[in-house]
User: What shape does this take?
Amino acid sequence: MLAELFAAAAEVCRDRSPLTHRLLDDAADDLRRGGVTARVMAGSERDREGTVPGLRFAGAVHRLVLEGRAQGLARHYPTVGGRPDLPTLWRDALPVLEDHVDLVRQQVQATVVQTNEPGRSAPLYGGLLVAAQEAAKAAGRTVPFCVRLLEVGASGGLNLRPHRVGYRLEDTVLGDRDSPLVLDPEWTGRPPADLTHRLRVVGRAGCDLHPVDVSTEDGRLHLSSFVWADQLPRWDRLRAALDLAATDPVEVERSAGPEWLAGQLARAERDVLTVVWHSVVWQYVSPADRAMGRAVLADAAMRATPTTPLALLVFEPRRADDGYRFELLLKLWPAGISLNLGHGAGHGTPFTWSVTPWE
Ligand SMILES: C[S@@+](CC[C@H](N)C(=O)[O-])C[C@H]1O[C@@H](n2cnc3c(N)ncnc32)[C@H](O)[C@@H]1O
Assistant: This one.
């Protein structure tokens, strides 16, 4: 039942976003009473749990605030300069919902929850340095390979510029120190690579089932609306990543992974390491697409040579003794290298580098 899904979504953000927790908890009560939330969510009553209707509702409300259409509610939203006053939040949300029932309903129905998390560029950057250097060593070279980066499930493509981001460590800044986006990667340990080498990216491409065009106001609002509005560090990170994207556009194609990947992998560039990358995508991919994607990659792996090597680099949740943890995994062909490089928080920071074989 929808009210239970709202309550479950509220629980997920209890500790991390008191504002979203309170909004969804009060909305769940309102649904049970048949209040305005029931009219807003009309037509979404049978939506699957995996589509997270509560977060789509919270995102649609946040979007109203960002668009300046929710005057009375904006004072609670830090993303527009407000300060949450939780006891009066729902009282102020009600008139906004009443005024915009149709708009919020359309938004909830038209949208899919989408986060494109720039923090994941930090493990990606370290993983690419390792891949470029290990592939070079295996080919008997002293200079790391240049990289062609192919991202499946790229969303708005915010992680397609890992070489144009700065990574602030205690003693230095890796990557581009002048970038609008400088991350604190919060690394324990370091990538097993020579960090003084520059990462050279000579090609980038991405695909997504629901690509977000961040060159448009609509695309930027879409990604922004799903940041929980009292998480200002994430908000600032997203703004900086959007600013960076504006200076260096990369189109994300609309496609499910396998066909797109097959097209991209049909050609290989000499002296370039092709890296297939995906982060927090695998759980959404259908079993048929997973099998097809594996076959496409296996086929390309057989064609890889020491001068046209191929890598798979993924940052995905994997089952562990205490639930799930997000691990960075690397495979290299034809070198036959298969490594688990470490694990971190779902948004990419903090991250612990700790190399073991990837079984
Ligand atoms: C949680 S988001 C992660 C986005 C991005 N990889 C990141 O780490 O910031 C998952 C993305 O996977 C996309 N997606 C899901 N299934 C897909 C498929 N079969 N092919 C391509 N993209 C897919 C979704 O549209 C969404 O943009």
